[in-house]
Amino acid sequence: MPDLLNAVLVVVLVLNLFALGTSRLLAVIRIVAVQGALLGALPLLIHDRPSLSVAAAALAAVALKGFAVPSIMMRALRDAQIKREVEPLIGLLPSIVLGALATALALLFSGQLQLSDSRTSALIVPASISTAVVGFLLLTTRYTAINQAVGYLVLENGIFIFGMLLVEAIPLVVEMGMLLDLLVGVFVIAIIANHINRAFSSMDTRRLASLKE
Amino acid sequence: MVDTVIHVALLFLLPPFLLGVINKTKAKLAGRVGAPLLQAYFDIAKLARKGFVLSGTATWVFRAGPAVALSAVAAAGLLIPFGRFDAPIAFAGDLILFAYLFGMARFFTMTAALDTGSSFEGMGASREAAFSCLSEPALFFAFLVLAKLSGSLSLGKMLMVSPESFASGAAAPLILISLGLFVILLAETCRIPVDDPNTHLELTMIHEAMILDHGGPWLGTILYASSLKLFVLVAVLANVIVPFRTGKAWLDWPIFVGETLALAIVIGFLESAMARLKMRRVPYLLVSAILFCGSAFILLVR
Q1: Contact B287 A103 (CB under 8 A)
Q2: Touching check for A101 and chain B: CB below 8 Å?
Q3: What one-character DSSP code corresponds to residue A47?
Q4: For the residues B244-254, what does the mean pLDDT come to?
Q5: A53-96 tens-digit pLDDT
Q6: pLDDT grade for A212, boundaries at 50, 70 and 90
Q7: Chain A residues whose beta carbon lies within 8 Å of the beta carbon of residue B288
Q8: Average pLDDT, stretch B45-51?
Q9: Confidence check on the interface: ipTM exceeds 0.85, yes or no
Q10: For residue B220, what pLDDT is reported?
């Protein structure tokens, strides 16, 4: 089903740009949740006849990326009373333009890489590269810890798409291990966010850099 | 022949009904009864009966504004196919004419606004000019994608997106340009995330600011022309989004009308669900429309 796969990947790319362009933290988390849920279902689209284990992995991925992780983050957002606005280092418009530039370059040059698997979609490589770059942008241009966790999630989504190329080579255990790592990572960040909030009253990572005894 | 007559009849009679559908949807979602579905027709009829007052500085440009806007938009409506039915007028390259008929309508509305000598209307005109600069490239990128897909430079063929093209790997660019076209539709017709057709708050108005000095029949003309513009753009979008046709004329016309009404309901939902953007955020939205349509083009030609 390469058409449906292509359509899903394009929606993922569009969601990237939305994530860069919204100024509300809650909206960004929701966008990343939708993106994660869509990506979780990708293995079902790639396999012609998904086996039971693939279906179980996809279900787990959708549940974790689409529901568990975002709900942990929203809970952290509520408990720690984090500011609901995103305050990027560079403006929202420049970040959208950078993200679109990355997408365009990824689309143009991914053909040069000797990875493109003709059996699956030609969009997988560019989609993974541009999603990873967008995640990197989110990670580097946002200040608060929760925002950076969102960037980390998007980065991981990009790597997840790339993993689709090796879908037969990566055993289920490794995939599940990655998902578990992700969950634990977000869990830890949420807890840390809570603790930072209790101790220092600010979540701005710029101030955390100059902490002293 | 019959189809051409239906095309022209729909083009001239249906547009105010779309405004009614949008307002009714908004009213229902807000828990109000709302104005009747035919309210826009009543408004236009009422305005047509009224007299008008001319500003002392106004010249013929002021009077030409609404007339040119209406005729340009109506001419643009004749260039696009409705559903699977051919456009009454079609020739190679008419996409340029289509885009610049809208440009001409905008130019005359803006000069008419400047002609009144009111600084307030000049502000509206400058905003309109600034935002249209951003929506035009997006429209052209969308047309480029459609032209590349159909291998034709005539809107009549370009907008006949076949269901097969969705299946043959063109789904991705088509999704992107539908998003872009939807943003263009909202911006060009001054719907909510860009402009609120109901407010008269001077700091944020775009379209409404330009037409404050028009009254009576001219205001009616402007109202009618803007509903016509909405209908034309909705028809373009409907052709791209829903390419499925039955092939029977008596079934395809109701399907097309249903599509436009469904899109009007979607716009109504959107207007109820979100607030208008801050003025300085509007370019972000339009730039993302350019980016969507531009990436669709890159995706297609790479």
Answers
A1: no
A2: no
A3: S
A4: 81
A5: 778 888 888 998 888 888 988 888 887 777 777 777 888 888 88
A6: low
A7: 17, 21, 96
A8: 94
A9: no
A10: 94
Return the residue of A nearest to B278 by Cα. A23
Cβ-count burial of A21 within 10 angstroms (0-12 exposed, 13-18 middle, 19+ buried)?
buried
Q: What is the pLDDT of residues A108-127, one digit of tens each?
A: 888 777 765 555 567 888 89
Token pair for B26:
């908004």
- Give the residues across from A204 on adjacent strands: A144
Q: Is B120 on the interface with A (CB under 8 A)?
A: no
Residue B147 C-alpha from the chain's centroid: 20
For residue A91, what is the nearest residue in chain B, using CA coordinates? B284
Test A21 with B284 for CB contact under 8 angstroms: yes
The answer to whether B182 faces chain A, any CB pair under 8 Å, is no
**Average pLDDT of the residues in B90-110:** 93
Q: Does A6 touch chain B (CB under 8 A)?
A: yes
Which pLDDT score is estimated for B223? Answer: 92
Q: Which long-range contacts (CB under 8 A, 24 or more apart) does B243-252 make?
A: B243/B160, B243/B161, B243/B162, B243/B163, B243/B165, B243/B166, B244/B163, B245/B83, B245/B84, B247/B84, B249/B2, B249/B3, B249/B85, B252/B83, B252/B84, B252/B85
CA distance B169 to chain A (A): 6
Q: Are A154 and A16 in contact (CB under 8 A)?
A: yes
Token pair in block for residue B299: 């995706």
| Record: contact A7-B176, CB cut-off 8 A | no
Cα distances (Å, whole numbers) of residue B110 to A152, B14, B139, B262: 47, 26, 20, 31
